[in-house]
Amino acid sequence: MASIPATYLLYLSVLITISPTSSTSIIEDLNNIHPPPDFNTIILNNCAKNPSLRYCNNPSPDFSEIFKSTIVTNHLCHESNNTNCPDSFVKIDLQNRKKFAPLYLSFSFFWKYCPLTILSIDLSNSSLKGDFPTDILHCSQIQTLDLSLNGLSGEFPLESFTQLINLTCLNLSYNHFSESKISDTQFFKRFNSSSFVHSGLVPDYHEFQFKAFVLLFGFPLCVVLVVICLGFICFLRPDYLPLFLQSKYKFTPAMLKAATDKYSPTNLVAKIGKFEIYRGTLREGTEVRIEIYRETIPRQEYKKFVAECKVLVQLHQKNLVQVLGWCNHRGYKAVILEWREGKTINLWLLNSLPTWKQRLKVLRKILEGVLYLQEHWPEVGFDLTTSSVLLSKEGEPLISRFRVGDGNSNKKNIYKFGVLLLEMIANKQSKDFKQGEASLIEWVKTHYQENIWKVIDDRLRKTGITPEQADKGIRFGIMCAEVSTEHHFKMAQVYDIITRFYESTLISRSPNH
Ligand SMILES: *[C@@H]1O[C@H](CO)[C@@H](O)[C@H](O)[C@H]1NC(C)=O
Ligand SMILES: *[C@@H]1O[C@H](CO)[C@@H](O)[C@H](O)[C@H]1NC(C)=O
Ligand SMILES: *[C@@H]1O[C@H](CO)[C@@H](O)[C@H](O)[C@H]1NC(C)=O
Ligand SMILES: *[C@@H]1O[C@H](CO)[C@@H](O)[C@H](O)[C@H]1NC(C)=O
Ligand SMILES: *[C@@H]1O[C@H](CO)[C@@H](O)[C@H](O)[C@H]1NC(C)=O
């Protein structure tokens, strides 16, 4: 390991003895000192013998610099209490050497040719200030580095440490490096937290553990959660899915629950036995009427129910309440319809005192709905009583009760319309009669001939219907409702007749209009 010949060391030791160990004199000496004439040859010989020496790798060596570094090497070797200096220079020990440590650090030529023998550097508690002394990193072979108990600050050159592959013992504790978390797991495997006590640097155990946790458990867990969430949304609240993924007419129990604010009593419109009507608001804001039949229904029935609903959602006419969808569940089935502000025809008759003209106008519009159903949906039956047909706020009558499979025929429809017409003239409901519609028809038939005003609604009379109009209306109503007679007219003709009645009210000058 001899890098400097013995003769030369003699010269150096003389030099050291003559220079006092005061820092200033060393610097002065170094500046004034010049390599002896044969120094170049000595270095070249050394390199020939041992090419791995640091200064041998330099293609154009600065011999004056190398000379100065050999002097510092010798000096520092003794200063560090190595025995057999400089051949066995294994450690730089400047611990607690507040005066010398900064000075030696400032000799960058020394660090540049850092002797390969040095395995340990201890600069702890020696008043180092400022940035990390990167010159030390030239000693890339070291195994131990202690910089603890100093005032080092600034960025810590984490990357440069990868080249110190033999470094196993590092101490940076008690410094003021810029606060940063060491999440570099490679670095962290080499040095644990006791190397960084109060150094400003925090080995980020937690981040490492967190990353491992995320990779091992978090990610699969997330996938599972996402799948569960999607499943949850699909089955319970499909209204949260993008529009193109939603099934248009199918509602889930959770959707109805949300729409009615958990079936809140304030949203309950009517309850008749197991049949409930709720007013609700869908997620996108549409107001709906939800009709629920709370009954345990056999599976087969459900299939029928859904098939029926699939027909009903296709009905589109302005005088029919729009069916929006359905919901089938083990405990109930529900139909969701558009919400229309309004009242039933019989309430309208009782409270609003409509004129004959107004009644005919409504009847005409009801017929438009009937014509549509008869023409396009012969399998769909419907109710035409004053208690089932609604009148919207805008004055539009709305047929609201349908039955798929019941069917509608011209004859049946004309009969139903006849009863409705009679109900609207008499202001009576067939359900108030003992035998329903038959009794109503019978009652009208027996009474209108003796005294027509006995049959006509008193309030209608006051609005100025003429006896002729009343007579025509009643007779047409009876004609329609007469099941036994084989009438040959069609629904379109009924519509024409009602239209004519209506137009005649526009010509005749009733006092109310
Ligand atoms: C250096 O060695 C001498 C004797 O070998 C000893 O007295 C002295 O305390 C040592 N100094 C340090 C800093 O270890
Ligand atoms: C650091 O040096 C001071 C003197 O400057 C000394 O009092 C102290 O004990 C030293 N600390 C350690 C841990 O060696
Ligand atoms: C690290 O140590 C090994 C064996 O002790 C040595 O061969 C190698 O050159 C050293 N690495 C450096 C960069 O000094
Ligand atoms: C840190 O490493 C040193 C040796 O490198 C070991 O003695 C010490 O127990 C370790 N401390 C922790 C907290 O792992
Ligand atoms: C680093 O130095 C500090 C202070 O002297 C000490 O408490 C700590 O144990 C040392 N850590 C290691 C890894 O040597």
From TrEMBL:
Residues 1-23 form the signal peptide. GO terms for cellular component: membrane. Residues 263-513 form the Protein kinase domain. The chain crosses the membrane at residues 212-236. It is found in: Membrane. InterPro entries: Kinase-like_dom_sf (IPR011009), Leu-rich_rpt (IPR001611), LRR_dom_sf (IPR032675), Prot_kinase_dom (IPR000719), Ser-Thr/Tyr_kinase_cat_dom (IPR001245). This is Protein kinase domain-containing protein. It comes from Aquilegia coerulea (Rocky mountain columbine).
